[in-house]
Structures are given as C-alpha cells and as structure tokens.
Design brief:
The complex is a heterodimer of chains A (251) and B (331). Chain A has 251 residues and is an all-alpha fold. Chain A has 14 helices and no strands. In chain B, 37% of the residues lie in helices and 28% in strands. In chain B, α3 crosses α4 and α11 runs antiparallel to α12. Classes of the chains: A mainly alpha (251), B alpha/beta (331). Chains A and B meet through α1 and α6 of A and α2 and α3 of B.
Chain lengths: 251, 331
C-alpha cells in the first residue's frame, strides 16, 4: 500500500511539475467559464425548463472540452515511460505490475478531479450573487459531478489502455480520442436511427452520455449507468495490466 | 549470489542468448564482455527481472527471478543502459522516490538518500533538476539509484558508456569502492574497462559464453604463449628476405612485417613457446644486423578477446574503444 502511495504521489506531482496540467486547467476553465456565462445569459431571455446546472452540464462547450481532456490526460501515462526507458526502472523495482497500473490510473483520476473541482466555484458565485440555488436540489450537483467522475473513470481507463499499447504519445492520444468518441457517440445513434427498434433505441438512450447527463443533472440517478461505467473501468484496467505484462514478453 | 542455468531468450526467430550458464559469488566484480549485440543487455534485463527468459533458471540471492520476482528484485540494484531518469524531478527528490519504491522505510529514506548522494558525489547537484544534468552526473544518479536501498547485488549495464576519460576513471573508482559491500555484475564492450575494474571476466559472443576467468587466466589460456608479442626494428635493405630468416628461427612461430620506413623495418613476432629474444640477439650478432628495438610485451586483453571472438567482430571492438583508453591498450 505504501508503494502504491509512493507511485501515486509521483504521478500526480509529475503532472503538476510539467506544464500540461496547468495548460489543461487554464483552457478547461476558459471554456467552462464561457459555458457558464452563456448558460446564465440564456436564463435572462425568459423562463426556461432547465436549471443552471442542467444547462451547464449539457452544452456543446461542456462536452467538447470534456471529450478533449481524456487523450491529453492519459497519452503520456505509459507511452512516455516506454519512450524514455524509465519503464525498465519501474518494472525492475520490487513493485507489482498491478500497482503500477492502478497508480497511473488513480493519478490521472486525481488530476481529472482536480481539473473539475474549480468549476464548482461557478455555482457558489451564482448563489452568492443571486441568493438562488443553481439546481433544484443538492442531489443535482452530486448527480452531475458524480456522472462526470464516473464517465471520467471509464474514459481515463480507456486512455490508460491506449497509452500502454504504444510508445508514441500521439498514437495513444489519437486512439484514445477515437475510442472515447466511439463510446460517446453510440448514444447519438438514437437520433440517426429514427424509428429502428424500440429495444435498440432504449439501449442507446441508456448508454448515451447526453441522455444520462440529462437525468443525473436533475438528481435522477440511474444505477445501470453507474454499473456500466464501473464495470467498463475494471475491464479496461484489466486489459491495461495484460498489455503491460505482454510488453515484458515482447522485450 | 547469482546463478544462471541454461538461459535462453529469443526475440522472434532470432536468438539473443543461447543456453547461458554462469554464476557470480558474493563479493565478486564480474565483467560481462562482448561485442555490441552479443546478448549482454538481454542477459542483464533478464537478471534484473525486466524480461522473462524463454527457458532456463535465474536465482538471485537464492530467489527465482521469475516465480519469486519481488523478493529477487528487492535484492538487486539495476542500472539500465543509457540511464533512463525522470527529467522533471530533482536529484534528491528522485532518489527519495526510488528509495521508498524499493521498500526503504519512510523515516530512513532521508538517511539512505544522503548516503547514496555522498557515495556518488552528488551533493553539489542534489537540488538540481535531473533533466539539466550532464551525462556524467546522470550516470552517477543512476548508480545512486541502483544502490540507494543497499541491495546485495548490483547489475550495471554499460556503466561508463558515453562518459569522457576523466568521468570514466571516476566511475571506475566508484565501482571498485562498492565491491566491499555489493556483488557486482557489469557489462561492457570495452576491454580496458573490465580489465581495470573486474576480478573475473565472462566473454560472451553471439549469445553464448566463449571464455571465462580472471584477466590473467584468460591471457594464459589464450592460444598464444605467455611471453606475448616481440617487436623488432632492424635496419635492412631487403625486409622480405629478413622476414623469411626470422620465420626460420626455432623460437618464432609467426612473424609479420609491420612497417618499413627509411630502411628501418619493424617486425612483430609471435614466439613459439618461450622467449625468443636471446636467440634473436645471437642471430643479429652473427649476421651483423643493426637493431633499434627488441622488446616483448604481454598480450593485451584486446588481443585475447579477438582470439576468442571471430574476426568479423573485432573491427567493431577496436572502433568502439574511446580515444582516452587507447594508450592503456598499447603499452
């Protein structure tokens, strides 16, 4: 356990010692800040059916910055170590391969959570300025941020897997982006398919992040989504471990 | 300390090492010598627990490197070729991270790091970013990393590659000093390197061990006699005739004309058994040869090495000897 903490500490601190974390933080806050501004401005035009939280978490700006985060957060995780050869030091230290995978994943998750944390200030500012709740209830905040966290787990683990497959950061980033987009946009198939089967439609809606967010940001938690993301995360991390161990055999 | 039995590893269809067996006793400094691509790094990667072997057994301090990998790995300090390091960390911070990764207890980390820093002469750069260090300092950080948890065994892959002659001397002294506390296996493709540091040498070529022994033993066992090579410089008009006469001497097994300039011809003679100098002297008195040089020297390890490793390789060996080492090789 102590070794896991040592690894995790290095992962997180190395992210903040390089400019990457700060650049991501800056642009994420810029985009979401604009998103928040646009959302609040929209409310001035008359009565709407959505709350500030609902509108914040379901716009093009939000999803765009959300999707772009994953390749950037995960591409260097393994690829960088393969390229510089530090993986050899890591894998010859008395450390389990599973500890390495978990530490890298958790490191990325901590960083990811740290990036989203400041966005909660928007709602505090909103409350401080207007003395109104940005959402209908506290559950909506937890739902929205919880879903961001859950989806983050899955997509970050996908990124871990891609990064463990190649020594080229860019290849890892492209692979991650394509896979994340693939899972993200399966949900949009429901718009395309129109009147296909109701079963397919139901399936795509269940697994569509946009539809899930509509639910969660109202405080309606869907356990199917929770289970889906947790299972997929576990699967991806398992595959990452296999890929890392396979690398030993290939030399 | 290290026992290797029948180790085999191939990358795809190409075998990197074939049926390798050797052992290293506690307190030894063993040099692993071979041309580039002989399988040195592959062997070291297997010993350090990075690569699994195709077949064969490796025991590190009694633990199997494959089935008891964590125990075996915690007893090895490994310096990979080219010394990979995290450039964004500071030297002290990096060593602390490595120490606790290797299981050093938190309250002893600072003390162990301090020891390693002192030993490797890193106190000046302790606060510096690893990425800004010179090659020599990087090498020392790598060494400090390898020994920070005081492992029984150090496996050093080409520890002096890419260093300038002064740095090479420093690292050699450092490694020799470590022998008191650690068993060391180091690899090199430079002969003077292993000759200067190691108590025993394993010569590896094309994945197999071709010779093993102390530097002196290797000299003795080499195909040529102990006396080594005799050099002779004579004033002569007809060097080719003289060459034939030299070859006819009973104590000379082989003679070659090295250079000829301004009437002076230089020959190199491989003795047949004993020391041929007395006979050459008598012969030159009898025939009135004018001598400018008559000397014998021990065979350098390099010559011994090329006698073990076929000639297609020896060119690359010679080329790879850094300029700073040349004088050592030709006394």
């Amino acid at each position: 356990m102590r070794i896991f903490w040592t690894l995790l500490k290095r992962e997180v601190s190395s992210a903040f010692l390089t400019p990457m974390a700060w650049i991501l933080l800056f642009f994420l806050l810029l985009l979401t800040g604009f998103n928040f501004y646009a959302g609040v401005t929209g409310l001035n035009h008359g009565p709407t059916e959505v709350t500030v939280v609902e509108s914040f978490f379901n716009t093009v700006f939000f999803w765009f910055s959300f999707l772009l985060l994953f390749p950037l957060l995960t591409m260097r995780l393994f690829s960088e170590e393969y390229r510089t050869g530090t993986i050899e030091l890591l894998m010859t230290a008395p450390v389990r391969d599973s500890q390495i995978v978990l530490a890298k994943f958790c490191g990325a998750l901590v960083l990811y959570a740290a990036l989203w944390m400041p966005t909660s200030l928007y709602f505090l500012i909103f409350w401080w300025q207007t003395h109104l709740q940005a959402a209908g209830a506290m559950g909506a905040y937890f739902g929205a941020y919880g879903l961001v966290f859950l989806m983050g787990m899955f997509y970050l683990s996908l990124g871990c897997l891609c990064s463990s497959l190649t020594r080229h950061q860019l290849s890892a980033a492209v692979m991650t982006f394509c896979l994340v987009a693939l899972f993200f946009f399966t949900g949009l198939l429901s718009f395309l398919s129109g009147q296909v089967g109701t079963f397919m439609k139901g399936l795509t809606i269940t697994f569509s992040p946009i539809d899930q967010m509509t639910q969660f940001s109202r405080g309606l938690y869907d356990t199917r989504a929770v289970v889906w993301y947790l299972l997929m995360t576990a699967l991806c991390l398992f595959l990452t471990l296999q890929s890392l161990q396979g690398r030993r055999w290939r030399g | 300390m290290i026992t290797v039995q029948g180790l085999t590893k191939s990358y795809g269809p190409a075998p990197a090492i074939r049926d390798l067996s050797f052992s290293v006793d506690p307190g030894e400094i063993v040099g692993f010598l071979g041309p580039n691509g002989a399988g040195k790094s592959t062997t070291m990667k297997i010993l350090s627990g990075y690569l699994p072997a195709d077949s064969g057994e490796v025991r590190i301090a009694g633990f199997d490197i494959f089935s008891e990998s964590l125990k075996a790995r915690s007893r090895v300090g490994y310096l990979p070729e080219n010394v990979p390091l995290y450039p964004e960390m500071r030297v002290g911070e990096y060593l602390g991270y490595r120490a606790s990764l290797k299981g050093v207890r938190s309250r002893r980390v600072r003390e162990k790091v301090e020891d390693a820093v002192q030993l490797c002469g890193l106190s000046q750069v302790q606060r510096q970013l690893v990425g800004t260090l010179s090659k020599g300092y990087r090498q020392r950080v790598g060494l400090a990393d390898a020994l920070v948890n005081e492992p029984d065994i150090l496996i050093l892959d080409e520890p002096t590659i890419g260093l300038d002659p002064n740095q090479i001397r420093e690292v050699r002294t450092l490694i020799k000093g470590l022998a008191a506390r650690h068993t060391i296996l180091l690899s090199s493709h430079i002969l003077s390197e292993v000759e200067a540091t190691c108590s025993r040498i394993l010569i590896i070529n094309k994945g197999s061990i071709v010779a093993t022994g102390t530097p002196d033993e290797l000299r003795q066992r080499a195909s040529v006699s102990l006396a080594g090579v005799v050099r002779l410089e004579v004033l002569t008009q007809a060097p080719s005739i003289l060459l034939e006469e030299l070859k006819a001497l009973s104590s000379v097994s082989k003679a070659t004309l090295l250079v000829e300039s301004k009437g002076w011809a230089t020959f190199e003679l491989i003795p047949d058994g004993g020391d041929p100098r007395a006979e050459i002297f008598e012969e030159s008195v009898r025939r009135g040869w004018k001598l400018r040089e008559l000397s014998a020297r021990e065979m350098s390890l390099e010559e011994i090495f090329t006698s073990y490793v076929p000639s297609s390789r020896d060119q690359s060996i010679r080329e790879n000897v850094p300029a700073g080492n040349q004088p050592r090789m030709q006394p």
